[in-house]
Design a protein that fits this description.
Layout (H helix, E strand, L loop, with lengths): L13 H17 L15 H13 L8
Helix pairs in contact: 1-2
């Protein structure tokens, strides 16, 4: 088994990023929480996708726990 190492760049998943960004904005504007179930096969980029969502969120939508 080998490690691919840490992903330096994130590309793709634009549709998912837009979905998360809009859902988080909606939750913030309503003053309510929200949750997501993210599932998929090993290595498809679930963690990287969510880490990117967190970065986008910190840039202007609101506050996420670290």
């Amino acid at each position: 088994m080998f490690s691919r190492g840490k992903a330096e760049y994130f590309h793709g998943r634009e549709k998912e990023q837009v979905f998360f960004k809009n859902a988080l904005k909606k939750a913030r504007s309503r003053g309510v929480g929200t949750s997501f179930l993210v599932q998929g096969s090993l290595g498809v980029g679930k963690t990287v996708c969510l880490k990117n969502v967190k970065k986008l969120f910190w840039k202007g939508i609101g506050v996420l726990p670290k």
